[in-house]
């Protein structure tokens, strides 16, 4: 059974179509990247996956049931969602944020507070106010909260944005090991095609439609990248495509 399934999903903001007949199955244990130009619909797809938006047509299923039919706490124990923007002023400390994630977790949650903070490189920062850490550190604190929540399906909107190279690779390594050892399903949007080559599978979208779905080494061709981003064919892509 797939963990998350999009079945012929369409979505419009008002009269403007944003997602067009999008279908895919995400299996347990997969670390999947979502690639596309600005405005192509990545965040919208992740919000549909999290049940924060309702498809105009089609269905999104989480663990075999329509995602929105899982109620509040039940959904929170199954699914973690990291929004793209986490700018809200928060009068909390790092440890309190992580505890909020744990409050939603089941008894058999995956990782302790200490473990998730160590995993994102914020050990010893439990008492630090969120207002006193950098943007990249704040993103890592939110990722720690989502890991503490213990859901088996994670939808992460640009989790690597604003992280320096070390933490980008450390976070990817952590996410990969969670997929392998705890059978998590992770769908994350990203813009860096070199980092994307480290994922198990990529979904490439253009104007809300699925252009390609497969292994990074198979699908990241010069032609696909040019089509995805409307690039001038003379643009040099050494190191980006396989
Ligand atoms: N709340 C909204 N109301 C109306 N239109 C929206 C809304 N949110 C997004 N859109 C539009 O839907 C389209 C897809 O937006 P979305 O944020 O899903 O793209 P994205 O691929 O995540 O972009 P980016 O890479 O810039 O984050 C864009 O044209 C955007 O303007």
From TrEMBL:
CDD domains: ABC_Iron-Siderophores_B12_Hemin (cd03214). SUPFAM superfamilies: P-loop containing nucleoside triphosphate hydrolases. PROSITE patterns: ABC_TRANSPORTER_1, ABC_TRANSPORTER_2. The keyword Transport applies. GO terms for molecular function: ATP binding; ATP hydrolysis activity. Part of the ABC transporter complex HmuTUV involved in hemin import. Responsible for energy coupling to the transport system. This is ABC transporter related. It comes from Trichlorobacter lovleyi (strain ATCC BAA-1151 / DSM 17278 / SZ) (Geobacter lovleyi).
């Amino acid at each position: 059974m797939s963990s998350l399934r999009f079945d012929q999903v369409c979505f419009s903001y008002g009269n403007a179509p944003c997602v067009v007949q999008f279908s895919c199955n995400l299996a347990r244990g997969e670390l999947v990247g979502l690639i596309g130009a600005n405005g192509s619909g990545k965040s919208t797809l992740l919000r549909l996956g999290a049940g924060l938006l309702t498809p105009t047509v089609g269905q999104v299923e989480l663990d075999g049931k329509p995602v929105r039919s899982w109620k509040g706490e039940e959904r929170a124990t199954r699914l973690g969602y990291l929004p793209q923007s986490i700018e809200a002023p928060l009068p909390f400390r790092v440890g309190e944020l992580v505890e909020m994630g744990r409050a939603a977790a089941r008894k058999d949650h995956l990782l302790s507070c200490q473990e998730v903070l160590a995993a994102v490189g914020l050990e010893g920062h439990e008492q630090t106010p969120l207002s006193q850490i950098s943007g990249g550190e704040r993103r890592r604190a939110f990722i720690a909260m989502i890991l503490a929540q213990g859901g088996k399906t994670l939808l992460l909107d640009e989790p690597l944005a604003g992280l320096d190279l070390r933490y980008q690779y450390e976070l990817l390594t952590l996410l990969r090991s969670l997929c392998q050892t705890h059978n998590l399903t992770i769908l994350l949007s990203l813009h860096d095609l070199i980092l994307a080559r480290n994922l198990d599978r990529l979904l490439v979208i253009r104007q809300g439609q699925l252009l390609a779905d497969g292994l990074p080494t198979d699908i990241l061709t010069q032609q696909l990248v040019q089509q995805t981003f409307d690039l001038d064919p003379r643009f040099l892509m050494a190191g980006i495509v396989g």
